[in-house]
Predict the structure.
Amino acid sequence: MRLQSLTLREIHLKLVTPFETSFDRTTERRIILAEARVDGVSGWGECTAGETPFYNPEDTETSWHILKNFLWPMLKGKELASASDAWALLEPVRGHNMAKAAVETAIWDAEAKLKNIPLWKLLGGTRSEIACGVSIGIKDSLDELATAVKKELGAGYQRIKIKIKPGKELPQVQRLRRDFPRIKLMVDANSAYRKEDLPLLKQLDGFYLMMVEQPLGWDDLFGHVEIQKNLQTPICLDECIHSYEHAEAAIELGACKIINIKLGRVGGLLQAKRIHDLCQTHGIPVWCGGMLESGIGRAQNIAMSTLPNFSLPGDVTASRRYWHEDVIAPEVTVKPQGTIEVPTTPGIGFTPRLDRISSITVRQAQLA
Ligand code: OSB
Ligand code: MG
């Protein structure tokens, strides 16, 4: 497979509903799409870096810069036996996993298309449907939160994750357990707590949550070991797991019992698969996280979620929850039982809508 050219496009997409976390509030996404030409075929990937460096160190600007000035020059014109060889070429750049994943996942899509098979089959996936949960942002009032949860349960979603932050968490879970005593419920703190908050976090043990996601610092494995020792509720790590080695350390140290895998955070599909396999060997279930992706990233997430150890519902949901109009056809839809049917057409299985994409493109770089 010869890597011929890369087209980067930055698109702007307004969210249907603003999304608030403990670290940010997002109303409009600035997303970089990567289109890789490989042996005459186009593969598509998405950069999941945010508009700000508050989730991880990358943002849309750094990703554009790294992709254009470092990653593509290291890839251009190269001959690969398969997409799984792309990572080794990207490795000399330290960090910048979301930029790496954008182009790496595009090459995977291209390989699947060249082989005329669905991407999920190329990866070794085993599911024809994936289980979906939702991630609900912080709301202004508990009534608004309860209304949002009711709506998502009505749409069929199998588990509810809510964003929490200090001072809001107990009223939030108390209210939801009062209104919805039996649902699969979990919370995501996005690193808003410190080790000293253990007594507060222990109070969450009373609400039989599926897990608490990333309570402590984005790179604080050791702190999570302390908290997990003293908590009955499983800790799920998100931000902390940015490599295979971090996953190994987290498991070995006992920093978590569950891992959220995000393609961007770990640097693409090869690394995601390696971490998936490692977790499977150690009996650690994984699920697919989301980064408010457009349809391209969403399609990549669906393919990854077909791997066997993605045994818990993920944050990959219907296009319409985010966008008035997505950039792919068909849009991603969720069935009444809260699952997404995995496409059977080649590659990511959804077609990028070039007309729609060019109408919302604010800058483009054609790299050959
Ligand atoms: O922590 O999982 C997270 C969105 C942006 C940044 C971090 C996170 C999230 C989400 C949204 O939870 C998941 C989705 O795409 O619906
Ligand atoms: Mg998270």
